[in-house]
Amino acid sequence: MTHDHDLVLRPTAAQTEAALNPPPGRTGGDLVVETLAGLGATTVFGLPGQHALGVFDALRRSGLRYVGLRVENNAGFAADAYGRITGEAAPLLLSTGPGALTSLPALQEAAAASAPVLAISSQVPTAGLGGGRHGYLHELPDQAASFRGVVKSVHTARTASQIPSAIAEAWKSALTVPPGPVWVEIPQDVLVAETVLPVVTAMDATPDELPPRPELTALAAHLLANAARPAIIAGGGVVRSDASGKLRQLAERVQAPVVTTPGGKGAFPWTHPLSLRSWLEDRHTTDFLEDADVLLVIGSGLGELSSNYHTFAPRGRVIQIEADLGKLESNHPGVGIHADARLALQALLETVRRREDASAPERVREVLARVRERIAAQDLTREQQVLTAVRRALPADSPSFWDMTILAYWAWSAFDAMGPNHLHSAQGAGGLGYAFPAALGAAVADPTRPVLAVSGDGGALYSIAELATARQHDLNVTWLIVDDGGYGILREYMTESFGGTTAGGTTATATATTELTGPDFAALAESFGVPGVRTSPENLAADLAEALKSPGPSVVVLPTRLRMFAPTHRGSD
User: Fold this and answer.
1) Which among 91, 95, 102, 87 has a CA at the least distance from the CA of 64?
2) DSSP string spanning 248-275?
3) Per-residue pLDDT, 509
4) Mean pLDDT per 10-residue interval, the chain, length 573 residues
5) What are the helix (H) ranges across 358-420?
6) Is 566 a domain residue?
7) Same domain, 428 and 355
8) Residues 380 and 563 sit within 8 Å (Cβ to Cβ)
9) Pairing of strands 451-456, 317-322
10) Do 418 and 495 lie in a common domain?
11) Looking at the structure, do residues 241 and 347 belong to the same domain, yes or no?
């Protein structure tokens, strides 16, 4: 009998010859880039630093494309978006200490959004490891410890021979569901030391699959087929696993209305008769979902934003399909199915009986009508005008990236993404400065479509340096900056919760903590060689459309103050 482990791949004569005569002058850095290329990487993001120069030197001898940004955090956001758009692990090359630590917010966002980022950082020389105080530049007692609570897995290589396997393990971890960011670190002396190891070939890091257990899908199929009022909440896991088509088939099979979370935008067609759209921050939607006797939650942990700030309390049976084991039943008890969304939906489609319910579309229309009436009563014409203008200007197949700004909060609920994997925001971790560098990463991933970034003036200042990156690489990104002179959403939060926004002394000397003195963003863009234009709510659609259709980067500045719709959980109105 022959077992799989008895099968050994024998090298060909050519492979043997190449192994015996590797090219001269290679280093540990070459092993890094050779491994990445062997795993299928074509593009890397990052910033050079003293301890990481061995990797950046090796890039010169590789076929990998390097996209350098100006701040490590922004490089992480760009890699995050590249991973979301392509579904591939996005390499992020970083240096030691401050360079590495500056990437932490971006890696937190990637973790929250399940974006596959492969961060590779240098370390101080091997002699400086182990927690001593050797006086090396950027030295930390335990650099990896800063990342263990943020990334999916941590991998270290302390010798040249360990590099290919450590990176391959990290690559597999990044892509195995739920995908996410991973961390690899390699000491400086290992990266620059010459190696006699053969050129890295035949790397295999196929991610593990996560199929559902059949007894659980059998139970879920029975509950759905026999439900009186089923409903579905679709989260980011549906988008990440490319399962939107299967979601639609299941919803139509059992006639279940579908609402998408902010991370699941576009997972279900906006205008479908069964689409409750994305109005999760609305008590009418919350009431509808609570009334469901069977609620199927796919690819969402029902966290704060997906549960109307934890005011949602389902009364029926909950079925939760989730690849992240720690999220199963973490907020609501139910039938937890630990599985990839695509594989679980396929299993349900093979099992569930068709359910007829002619009333479901009418019930959806009633809920959406109540939502419209509630919003219409709040005098929010300008906000809806601006969001409509953005949708009119943006091509249907173009991705958009949204910072934590009032217009993004509107987009979570009211914007038609027109397809899965089209709308992305920083709602996972909630950090500022995400939109523009992420849009740059998306433009690198697919240069055939214009990309839109949306920021407020506060968030824009986090990533303004990347205008240089956009110009240097001539990326097709249009950046819409809504300039309201401050942190608009925090201004609203502080005023509502604390009655004001001032701090720092008496009334005469106090300053408003949410107000910002800012630049002329259009003129600043022009100083980078990037076209900039000021617009108005009335001219936004035309000006934004013109910018999006023009090749290369551009900036559109909209000076206006927008308001959020009123709180929408039970008892708030």
Assistant:
1) 91
2) HHHHHHHT--EEE-GGGTTSS-TTSTTE
3) 45
4) 56 74 89 97 96 96 97 98 97 96 97 97 84 70 92 97 97 97 97 94 90 98 98 97 98 98 96 96 92 96 74 91 93 94 98 96 98 94 97 98 95 96 91 96 97 96 97 98 81 69 53 80 98 98 98 98 78 47
5) 360-376, 381-393, 406-414
6) no
7) no
8) yes
9) unpaired
10) yes
11) yes
Give Dmax (Cα) for the chain: 88
Q: How far apart are CA 6 and CA 243, in angstroms?
A: 37
Q: Does 292 map to a domain?
A: yes
**CA 76 – CA 332 distance, rounded (Å):** 33
Alpha carbon 308 to chain centroid, angstroms: 21
Given strand 294-298, what is the order of strands in its sheet? 275-277, 258-260, 230-234, 294-298, 317-322, 335-338
Please name which of 56, 62, 13 lies closest in space to residue 39, comparing C-alpha atoms: 62
Buried b (16+ CB within 10 A) or exposed e, 289-305: bbebebbbbbbbbbbeb
Q: Which of 435, 429, 463, 462 is nearest to 151 (CA)?
A: 429
Tokens 């392509």, residue?
86
CB-based contacts of 21, cutoff 8 Å, min separation 6: none
Q: Identify whether residues 170 and 274 lie together within a single domain.
A: no
| Total of domains in the chain | 3
Q: 382 is written with which tokens?
A: 């300008």
Q: Where in the sequence is the domain holding 342, given as residue range(s)?
A: 214-368
pLDDT score for 501: 64
Same domain, 167 and 286: no
Kind of pairing between the strands at 511-512 and 502-503: antiparallel
Q: Which residues pair with 338 in a beta bridge?
A: 322
pLDDT the model gives residue 487: 75
Pick from 327, 334, 337: nearest CA to 304: 327
Whether 45 and 91 have beta carbons less than 8 Å apart is answered as yes
446 and 484 fall within a common domain? yes
Domain of 348: which CATH number? 3.40.50.1220
Query: What was the pLDDT predicted at 55?
Result: 98
d(CA 320, CA 232): 10
Q: Using an 8 Å Cβ cutoff, are 375 and 529 in contact?
A: no
What residue has token string 């990104």? 477
Burial class (CB in 10 A: 0-12, 13-18, 19+), 61: middle
CA atoms of 536 and 283, how far apart (whole Å): 33
- Reply yes or no: is the peptide bond before residue 22 cis, omega within 30 of 0: no
Name the domain boundary from 315, 334, 368.
368
Q: Is the peptide bond before 211 cis (omega within 30 degrees of 0)?
A: no
**Residue ending a domain, choose from 308, 340, 368:** 368
* Residue 100, domain member (yes or no): yes
Quickly count: other Cβ atoms within 10 Å of residue 497's Cβ: 8
